[in-house]
Amino acid sequence: MAGHSKFKNIMYRKGAQDKKRSSLFSKLSKEITVAAKMGGVDIDANPRLRLAVKSAQSNSMPKDNIQRAINKSQGGEGDNYEEVRYEGYGPGGTAIIVEALTDNRNRAASEIRTAFAKNGGNLGESGSVSFMFDKVGEIVFDASVMDADAMFEAALEAGAEDVNSDDETHEIYCAMEDLHTVTTALEESVGSEPKSSRLIWKPQNTVGVSEEDAEKLMKMLDVMDDLDDVQNVYGNYEISDEILEKLNG
Predict the structure, then answer these.
(1) CA 115 to CA 113: how far, in whole Å?
(2) DSSP 8-state code for residue 195
(3) In sequence order, what are the residues at sequence separation of 6 or more whose Cβ sits closer than 8 angstroms to the Cβ of residue 155?
(4) pTM for the full model?
(5) pLDDT band at 20; cut points 50, 70, 90
(6) Taking CA atoms, which of 18, 44, 128, 190 is between 20 and 30 Å from 92?
(7) Which residue has the higher pLDDT, 80 or 6?
(8) Which SS3 state, helix, strand or coil, does residue 211 take?
(9) Which stretches does DSSP call E strand in the chain?
C-alpha cells in the first residue's frame, strides 16, 4: 500500500493484490457474473460488464476465468446477489465506504459490522459518510508512459476533470458517466492500456491518521478484504510514507 500520493491509499486492495490473488479473482468473477446477468453478455452494449472485464484483465486474470464468469451468468448463477453499500467510521475519525455483493444481506451486515466494531470503528446508517465522497471514474497509468505535463494535457483533452501524477503512477479522474470515453481517448493518445479503469468513491478531503490509528485501520481493512461479500473498500484516510514503512516493515 503506497502512500506517495494523496489518493494512493483510497483503495486498500491496490496494495493487497499479490498476496490475495485468489480472493481477488473470486471477487472479480462475481462482479463479471452479476454485470453480465444484469446487462447481458455483449461487452460493447454493457458498460458495467466492460468495466468488470477490463478490471479483471488489468489484474492479470486469465481469459478462461473471465469467460467462465460470463458463462455463469447464463446458468442461473448471480440470480441471488444484491448490491449493498455500508458506511461507517474507522479509527481516527476516518470515513469508510464498503461495497458488497451478497446473497445473504444479514450475513454481510453482521460480518462488516463486526469488522468495524473489533477494530476501533463503528458501522453507521446509509448516507452517514457518503456525502463526503464523490462517485467518479478513475484511470491509472504507469508513470513511465509519459511525463506529468504531457499526461495532464492528454487527460484534459480526453475530457478528464483532474490528474494526479507522482513517481509511480498517473491517476486521472473524470465524471462517472464519461469513464469509457475518457479511457478510450487516453488509450489512443498514450498508446497503451491503463493499469486500471474503474468507478470509485473519491474523498472530497482526506484525514491524516496517527501511527496507532493507522495500525488499527489497516487491520480493519485487512479483515474486510478477506470477507467474501466485500467487493471494494474506500476511505478518506491519508497515511504518511513514514508510518506506512513502519507498519509494513
Answers:
(1) 5
(2) S
(3) 163, 170, 172, 182, 186
(4) 0.84
(5) low
(6) 18
(7) 80
(8) helix
(9) 82-89, 95-102, 122-123, 133-142, 162-165, 169-175, 196-203, 207-208, 230-235, 237-238
